[in-house]
């Protein structure tokens, strides 16, 4: 597994778009092997199928609860705890280089593919989300929400932002410190923003308004501090808006507090809150 990761990282560190694409595909293949299980063909199935189709066995997504018992997943998770093999930090560095190359069709596709993989790794390895408590990495996502970005990048960035904030109040405070709410609401108000992106922006605001779970010593990931150390070791120059350390307050905020904060940038926030209480879009009852 280390050799495959090493080769993928080499490709991702390139400025050649074809090599970056190859590195992303290799990582995608590795994650697919970890998250998908192959089902054995039923007796006589091979006789009923064409020869070509018999060469590829059917794949099924593994249950999340079963991943912890999978040897490949355990090995991969353990590798992510160290700086050398952490995938998230490499994808972030790749995004920085791609963002610096400007906007064109092929580069935009690479950015979307990188964001999609980053979403996956943040879900598979939650401790890597701690990287986004640092302003320099959170600001990278906000840079991608610029109105000049293509709709596909904006949509993928919003989904990545959700995974970066999930169960991470520290990250949400960093997001707020960097005027993330201003960035999101400004994009929503921009006339050129596509309807699909505006729908995702509303979904993001629903997510943001959800009550937060306090991070305690019993539910904090033991490798979260290690992930922050990795971020410090890979500290790069601040991007064009901000730089420096992460948010100064990891305390949780209530829905009411976030409603007041969001109300500074958007009208009719109470309507969003009411809708959130009535429809429970994320499957949780909100009082």
Question: Could you give the topology of this structure?
Answer:
Elements: H1 2-12, H2 17-35, E1 36-38, H3 45-48, H4 51-54, E2 59-61, H5 64-67, H6 71-80, H7 87-100, H8 105-124, H9 135-144, H10 151-165, H11 169-177, H12 180-189, H13 195-209, H14 224-233, H15 255-263, H16 269-279
Antiparallel strand pairs: 1-2
Helix pairs in contact: 1-2, 2-8, 7-8, 8-10, 9-10, 10-13, 12-13
Descriptive key words:
globular; two-stranded antiparallel ribbon; mainly alpha; 61% helix; 16 helices
Could you describe the 3D structure shown?
There is one protein chain. The protein is an all-alpha fold. The protein is 61% helix and 2% strand. It has 16 helices and 2 strands. Strands 1-2 form a two-stranded antiparallel ribbon. Helix 7 runs antiparallel to helix 8, helix 8 runs parallel beside helix 10 and helix 12 packs antiparallel against helix 13. 31% of the residues are buried. About 17% of the residues have low confidence.
Give a brief description.
With 287 residues, this protein is mainly α.
Helix fraction, binned, reads 55-70%
Which percent range describes the beta-strand content?
Answer: under 5%
Strand order of the largest sheet: 1-2
Q: What is the averaged pLDDT score?
A: 80
In terms of per-residue confidence, which ranges show pLDDT below 50 for 5 or more consecutive residues? 39-43, 45-57, 217-228, 230-249
Q: What composes the largest sheet?
A: 2 strands, antiparallel
- Give the number of DSSP strands: 2
What's the end-to-end separation, in Å?
46 Å
How many helical stretches? Answer: 16
- Spatial extent as radius of gyration: 20 Å
Order of helices and strands: HHEHHEHHHHHHHHHHHH
- Shape, per Cα inertia axes: globular
Secondary structure class reads mainly alpha
């Amino acid at each position: 597994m280390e050799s495959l990761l090493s080769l993928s990282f080499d490709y991702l560190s390139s400025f050649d778009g074809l090599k970056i694409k190859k590195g992303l595909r290799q990582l995608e293949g590795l994650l697919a092997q970890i998250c998908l299980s192959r089902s054995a063909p039923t007796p006589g199935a091979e006789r009923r199928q064409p020869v070509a189709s018999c060469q590829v066995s059917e794949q099924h997504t593994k249950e999340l609860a079963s991943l912890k018992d999978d040897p490949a997943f355990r090995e991969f998770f353990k590798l992510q705890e160290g700086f050398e093999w952490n995938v998230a930090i490499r994808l972030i560095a790749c995004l920085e280089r791609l963002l610096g190359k400007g906007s064109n069709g092929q580069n935009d596709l690479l950015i979307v593919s990188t964001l999609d993989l980053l979403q996956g790794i943040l879900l598979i390895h939650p401790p890597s989300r701690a990287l986004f408590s640092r302003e320099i990495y959170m600001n990278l996502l906000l840079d991608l929400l610029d109105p000049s970005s293509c709709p596909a990048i904006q949509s993928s960035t919003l989904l990545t932002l959700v995974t970066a904030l999930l169960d991470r109040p520290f990250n949400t405070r960093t997001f707020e410190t960097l005027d993330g709410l201003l960035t999101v609401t400004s994009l929503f108000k921009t006339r050129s923003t596509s309807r699909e992106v505006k729908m995702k922006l509303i979904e993001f605001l629903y997510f943001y308004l959800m009550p937060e779970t306090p991070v305690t010593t019993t539910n904090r990931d033991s490798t979260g501090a290690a992930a922050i150390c990795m971020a410090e070791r890979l500290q790069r120059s601040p991007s064009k808006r901000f730089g420096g350390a992460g948010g100064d307050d990891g305390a949780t905020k209530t829905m009411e507090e976030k409603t007041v904060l969001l109300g500074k940038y958007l009208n009719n926030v109470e309507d969003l809150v009411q809708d959130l209480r009535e429809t429970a879009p994320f499957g949780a009852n909100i009082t």
